[in-house]
Amino acid sequence: MSTSPQTLTTKDVAKVGLLARLALSEADLERMAGELSKIVGFVSMLGELDTANVAPLAHPLDTQNVFRDDVPAASLSTAEALQSAPRHDGECFLVPAVLGESSAA
Amino acid sequence: MQPLEMSAVDLVASLRQGDITAVECATVFLDRIEATNGSINAFLAVDREGALARAADIDARRKAGKPVGPLAGLPVALKDVLCTADMPTTCASKMLAGFRPPYDADVVARLRRADAVFVGKTNMDEFAMGGSNENSAFGPVRNPWDLSRAPGGSSGGSAACVAADMAPVAIGSDTGGSIRQPAGLCGITGLKPTYGRVSRRGLIAFASSLDQIGPMARSAADCALIMETIAGHDPGDSTSLVVDVPRYTDLIDKPLTGIRIGRVPEHFAAGLDPEVAKGVEEAFAVLMAAGATVHDVHLPHAKYGIPTYYLIAPCEASSNLARYDGAHYGHRAEPGKGHRAEPGGQRSAGQAGGFESPLVEMYCRSRAEGFGPEVKRRIMLGTYALSAGYYDAYYAKALRVRRLIRQDYLDAFQTVDLIGGPVSATPAFKLGEKTDDPLAMYLVDLYTVGTNLAGVGGISFPCGFTKSGLPIGFQLQAPPLAEPLLLQAADRFQRLTDWHRRRPQAMEGGKA
Amino acid sequence: MSTNTPYTTIIGLEVHVQLMTRTKLFCGCSTKFGGAPNTQVCPTCLGLPGSLPVMNRQAFDLALRAALALECTIAPFTKWDRKNYFYPDLPKGYQISQFDLPFSSDGFLEVVDPKGAFEPRRVGIVRVHLEEDAGKSMHDDAAGTGDTRIDLNRAGTPLCEIVTQPDLRSPQEARAWLNELKLLLVYLGVSDCNMQEGSLRVDANVNLHIPVPATAGAEARVAKTPIVEIKNMNSFRSVERALTYEAARQWEEWQATKAEMGKTPKQTRGWDDPAGITRAQRHKEESSDYRYFPEPDLVPVTVTAERIQSIRGGMGEPPVSLRKTLASQWQISAYDADVLVNQGRELVDYFEDLATRVGEGKVASNWMQQDVLRILNETNGTVSAFPVRPAGLADLIGRVKKGDFDTSRAREIFAEMVTSGRPVDDVVAGMGISAVSDDDVIALCRELLAANPKIVADVKSGKEQAAAGLIGQAKKKNANVNPGKVRAICLDLIREMG
After folding, report:
1. Which of B361, B382, B459, C456 has the CB geometry, 3.0–4.6 Å to B486, for a possible disulfide?
2. Is residue C35 included in any domain, yes or no?
């Protein structure tokens, strides 16, 4: 990524595009580089605030410890599970062949 | 009185008394939709058959003396961001065109049990991202007060539908103002409850820590009625509050004596339309006449609300929308056809051009084809702000400022019970006016994002009209779980004024 | 450093175990193994639009149990995070896991080899955290369609990820440690750790530390080869084989290239069991940017000291301390205790029941190892289905003590008890075994002595051991005689002869 966080190059945008799995044309890359740079520049105003002693607030609630019991609930039928699948064989979802190892994690 | 002119409260009573049948009632609204939707485009899907069947069933049960729900026969429109098992749910996106979820959202299930009659799914900004309902893949919604103007967004369809009497109530969702701002621009009443008051299960997520579902109607009293049905703990939503639901309809008819309302001087900076400013000041005057007192309060970090929101929301959205990849549901690009990155377009290091595998190609093209430009922009922004090296400066930083913003509210509510002010800096703007400048569009949320960031409740309702006849909205914000007070104050205002009863000229006589 | 190799092998393990809950981590779908594809799914584990997760309390409790047994520190405050990446077996496009505040950290598990093949090794645990499993992708090469089939039954199953310090020093240690971990987790009812069913998975990280002698220009130092992550090992044996292969490969590579661990990302290699080699896997440069952030759909969890106490209370005794307890309580050797404990809680319960009835540990332990275990292994049976219960076996052992028959006869009887399921008395009667009266034994002995003058003469001249030759003849005449009795009576009779 470019060293100046406020300006994105088309290379930066292409890298983000791949992370986000969005196909982007040359024209898209150019346009997005401009738009995102402008937005990132704008949101960077948060840097004006000294938040060294402020903890992040990920949830607006103070709720903790929400659990459910280990009790079975109704599952969907296979037909329901596959009803919106772009491609399936009646049992499984079908996707283009995945090369190499299973789950990247 | 004609059903189209009645409040939801009165309609429900009428239906209960048998003055009108559910089928008659539904027919009136369905006919209205048919006559007007062409020019407004508030609805993406109308379920005439289903609604009439439902209504007939309710009438039959009532006739047989069987119990019916508290909203029996009331026509309700649902923002197309809510999962309905019997109607498509598209989020106004090509990505979910024709998608049918195999389950109902919790709110939808509650309304069904209450015997509401769903007339259809309303248009919205795609995946709830926008402030004008111009980001819909199925055409913009037009403001019934002036068809050349936007209704606001993202619940533009729901707002317009109520304003044009296509339904007495609609359900919307609010992440940064998406109920309150369109309500303000369309002259209706919209409530965003405290975060966690209403279950998010079945609400197609935009930004999970900010989203809330809420009622949109002609009055606070109508909103109160709907809240009694849709609010409440849902064990299927971990962020749902375990708090009893008050009988809102019983609580709203109270005077405002002793209620302290905050007025934020910073709200009245340059950029606030003078007519809006005047309308807002007049609203304060009405509230004072009703017995409330008005005090200056400060929300020192208010100006950081937009940048904070436009980091947190896109970051969460970039993750929430990752599931739309063409693998298990939604749009999948045809292999070898359509939009394709130009050779050399994918300039990530290590790639000569094109995609590294057919699977990656499927993901990239499906998402590029399925999502509109604003959705892509926010996904890109969120992905960037969460990525290695940028997380601390952007996302983590925004979470810290969020705490400051919430603290501002908690501090302010030490001295006042409510905070009043504008809901939008301008009245409804022209379609196309802001679409060239994303940042300009983001600024329409100026007065509303703080509510979501802090997780508190807010309501907007009409407080006047501009000379050119456009509605002016007023917003009240309250501490957590103070929905009764919000509804009470808005209701009291609406007993003393009649802005909320006005109807668009263009709509009178049932003609578009 | 091993005396056999000019380098030290440094091994760390990353283990994923599926927790033995009835339902998934965030929804009520069943976790049962082997169901037809996509029959155990719902909006939540399918990642349908609008779906939300709710944490399974039992999963968290089992995870706590595992962490406590691994001597970890439990975090008083813990939260979940999203790990974002795209893969078809991950329907939400992110995995709900734990990043910077896992619920436990800083533990250890020791492995000891009773035969002393390696020194006792205490392996540090960096962290144990709780996350959801992904679904299964099946590559259908045979069908030749170029499609991959996705089954999401497994998606959402609760997993504990256990990450060790790089404290293991040989493939043998690693295998033994995994066995010890499995034993522990099975004992605690946390997981069934069945690699064939995928309820336990292992990835290994390995590199070599090579002493480099001082030269004119440099001091002596330790060179480190680049760390390699090995995936796709499907059994503990594979783990040992893969690590053995990889260590040797890295040594060859070091000698050829002298390449040391640097700033390049960790290399991943897949183990090919049939071929017996590891192969480099294509490196995806952006796959490591998971863009972790706090999961907004889940609220944090706080763990009190009371909760920890309550979990400890319900845990049961882990193998490490159970071995010591058995050895001291029943006076059996450490080796014997080890054998019993390693067979699992059920067998230990059987043993303790038996030893209590018999009144001593050693005899019970011998019968367990030489007979019960042997038969279980031969028949591939389980303790719970074993036809002879501790009471029946104790009965038999009591009869041997009384002298009704000797041990070897008793083992024949036992075998018949196992096959027929009948109690001792029935079997004894059925086999025509009856106690031989003392008079009959004496009569028999007189017969034998009369028939074996040479043996009598040998005994008289001081070679008492010659009497052993009479026992085989005695048994041929009457299988039911107690050999010990025969010997004693014969010797008496010979002494009486003067």
Report:
1. B459
2. yes
Q: Which residues contact C486 (CB under 8 A, 6 or more apart)?
A: C441, C444, C445, C448, C470, C471, C474
Amino acid identity for residue C385 in this structure: A
CB contact under 8 A, A76 and C41: yes
Query: Out of C21, C281, C296, whose CB is closest to A101?
Result: C281
Q: Is residue B192 within 8 Å of residue B223, measured between CB atoms?
A: no
Tens of pLDDT, residue by residue over C324-355, are: 999 999 999 999 999 999 998 999 999 999 99
Single out the residue of B239, B117, B217 nearest to residue B169, CA to CA: B217
Q: How far is CA C222 from CA A30, B302, C8, C276, in A?
A: 50, 57, 10, 29
Residue C1 lies in a domain: no
User: Is B398 an interface residue toward C (CB < 8 Å)?
Assistant: no
- Give domain status of residue C401, yes or no: yes
Going by C-alpha positions, the residue among C90, C104, C93, C84 that lies closest to residue C133 is C90
**Could you tell me how many helices (H) and strands (E) chain C has, helices first?**
17, 18
Residue of chain A whose alpha carbon sits nearest to that of B102:
A80
C326 plus C278 within the same structural domain: no
B98 touches B4 (CB < 8 A): no
Considering CB atoms only, which of B83, B315, B321 is closest to C50?
Answer: B83
Q: Do A49 and B380 touch (CB under 8 A)?
A: no
**Can you tell me the distance from the alpha carbon of B319 to that of B17, in angstroms, rounded to the nearest whole number?**
49
Question: Tokens standing for C149?
Answer: 């089939």
Q: Are residues C104 and C239 in the same domain?
A: yes
Three-class SS of residue B258?
A: coil
Q: Which tokens is A61 given?
A: 């609630």
Q: Determine the Cα–Cα distance for residues B478 and B268; give it in Å rounded to an integer.
A: 20
Write down the residue that tokens 């949101």 correspond to: A43
ipTM of this complex:
0.94
Least Cα distance to A54 among B302, B413, B454, B399 occurs for B399
Distance (Å, rounded) from C-alpha B166 to C-alpha B30?
7
**B117-122 and B43-46 strand pairing:** antiparallel
pTM of the entire predicted model: 0.91
Report the run of H or E that residue B189 belongs to, with start and end: strand B189-192
Tell me the pLDDT of chain B (512 aa) as tens digits.
Answer: 799 999 999 999 999 999 999 999 999 999 999 999 999 999 999 999 999 999 999 999 999 999 999 999 999 999 999 999 999 999 999 999 989 999 999 999 999 999 999 999 999 999 999 999 999 999 999 999 999 999 999 999 999 999 999 999 999 999 999 999 999 999 999 999 999 999 999 999 999 999 999 999 999 999 999 999 999 999 999 999 999 999 999 999 999 999 999 999 999 988 899 999 999 999 999 999 999 999 999 999 999 999 999 999 999 999 999 999 999 999 999 887 544 444 434 433 323 347 888 999 999 999 999 999 999 999 999 999 999 889 999 999 999 999 999 999 999 999 999 999 999 999 999 999 999 988 889 988 999 999 999 999 999 999 999 999 999 999 999 999 999 999 999 999 999 999 999 999 865 544 44
Angle at B315 between CA B309 and CA B319, to 5 degrees: 140
Q: In degrees, to the nearest 5, what angle opens at C-alpha B296 toward C-alphas B294 and B297?
A: 120
Q: Which CATH architecture has domain A1-49?
A: Orthogonal Bundle (1.10)
CA separation for the pair A28, A18 (Å, rounded): 13
A17 in Cβ contact with A29 (< 8 Å): yes
Residue C477's domain spans which residues? 438-497
Out of A5, A14, A54, name the one closest to residue B403 (CB).
A54
Neighbours of chain A (3+ CB pairs under 8 A): B, C
Categorise residue C179: left if φ over 0, alpha if ψ from -120 to 50, beta otherwise. alpha
* 3 state SS of C12: strand
Q: Structure tokens of B422? A: 């504008």
CA pair distance C407, C389, nearest whole angstrom = 19
